[in-house]
């Protein structure tokens, strides 16, 4: 059995490693000549960590992850702590810890695990077709690939998604802009072992520790899409949007490198239940593009990879049947994650400011129990709970 995998990002490489682990031959095709990860870092929650452990990357992943032991919310003007609690109860209840990691380093780890020379870069798929015994993929350079099945892990702008669904999908602007990057840890900004978030005015500033004595930071601001802002105005833009915010926020703005700070307008796609057509399956953002508000986008792609590999390895009624079993196990799960992230996004970013203000008040009496319970439910919904 041979699988063609379109996309060499987190989802595509996780799928390739998973299928290879199950004895299935793979060919990976990536459109760009060199992968430059979108976003500076990613929070891999225990459900994603367990998937990477299953793929044989337990030790290298632990080496990349930051020591995130506590979680805290800070009031935006004075920087006072609204709530602070340990993540240890979560770790003990789900059996694994979260790992914030730099995206470039995660990508490199996956490439090393699969084999860098095995990925065919600069191969942009144009269209696919079913054949009597499988699937054929056509590329812009004239190359044609044939396999028994095809995994579309080609991202939120997937070329293959319309073929699977039979119609186009529209990306939905979530209403906010995210700036993100990496800076050296400075404990006058936030503790080195804590996920720290400043909240106010429907905005947030967040820091997570990653390996190498670095913070992954991000700023969120509700804004119209299409503003003429880029790296040349990053510091001025953030100083304007966060005028009057606490001293650690101002210090962070002064510390960032505009040339390595990303600015992203956040979108998702309305969830859909069809992830498979014949011998073609959608995986990762191609099948469930979500906002980053619950940190589950990358984790969901890793889950997809594990479930897909197990379905193909353990079912004997044919490839089409195995893929439908993959769809059956994933469609409700990923719909739930997309909608949870959307709901969290609306509360965090002031879609209804009265609701957001109520959340700020709740944080003052938060012991961690409610927040950790929500995280626990999401994590234990994964395939390797």
UniProtKB/TrEMBL annotation:
The EC code for this enzyme is 1.14.13.113
Q: Which cofactor does it need?
A: FAD
Do the record's keywords include Oxidoreductase? yes
Q: Where is the FAD-binding domain?
A: 2-338
* Pathway field: Purine metabolism; urate degradation
Would the keyword NAD turn up in this protein's UniProt record? Answer: yes
| Reaction catalyzed | urate + NADH + O2 + H(+) = 5-hydroxyisourate + NAD(+) + H2O
The record ties this protein, via Pfam families, to: FAD_binding_3
Q: Which UniProt keywords apply?
A: FAD, Flavoprotein, Monooxygenase, NAD, Oxidoreductase, Purine metabolism
The highest taxon in the source lineage is: Bacteria
Could you say which protein family the record assigns here?
Belongs to the FAD-dependent urate hydroxylase family.
What is the name of the protein in this document? FAD-dependent urate hydroxylase
Instruction: Recite the lineage of the species.
Output: Bacteria, Pseudomonadati, Pseudomonadota, Gammaproteobacteria, Enterobacterales
